[in-house]
Amino acid sequence: MTGPRRVRLSATAGILTAVIAAVALSTLACGKPSDGSAIRALLEESVARAEKKDARGLMEFFAPEYVDFAGRDPAGTLRLIIGYLDRYRGIVIHLLGARIGDIGPDGRASVECEVSLSHGAAEVLRKLIRYSGETYRFRFDLRKNERADWRFIYAEWQSIGLPDLFPESLEILKKLFPGL
Question: Which of 10, 36, 115, 132 has the CA that lies 20 to 30 A from 160?
C-alpha cells in the first residue's frame, strides 16, 4: 500500500510546490511598490496627517533642504502649517487628481496634484449644500532619501477655480459632491 499513497503525496507535494512557487514569483514581481504608487501614498499620508492637525508628523516628509516658492525652509513651513491648522476646526482635505512626471535617474520627480480644502461645518453639511471648499493646485519636487523614501524638496501652490481643475479632479469632486 505504500505505492499508491506515495503517488498521492507526491502529487499533493507537487501541487503545493507549484502554488508556493507561484506565490513566491508573484511576490517577487510585485516587490516594492512602484515609485508612482509610493509617491501617491506619500500624498495620501500627507493629507491624512494634515487633517489630523499633525503638523510635526507631516514635516517628516520634508527633506532638510526643502524650500518653497516664497523661500520658506522646513521651519518656516512648519510655522505656516501650524498657523493655518490652529485657525480652523474640522479641516477636510480631498486629494483630487495627481500627475506624476518622469522620475529621473538621480531619484527626483515632479508632481502636480490638486486638493479641495474646507473647514468648519461637518462633511455631511458640506455635501448637502454642495460646498466643495477651496481648490488648490500644488507642484512638488521630490527626492528619494538614502532609505529610498520620497521627500518634498520644493513646493508651490495656487488657488484655482473649478474650471481650471484637471478633468480627473473635477470628476472626483462630482462624485464627492453630486450636482456640483
Answer: 36
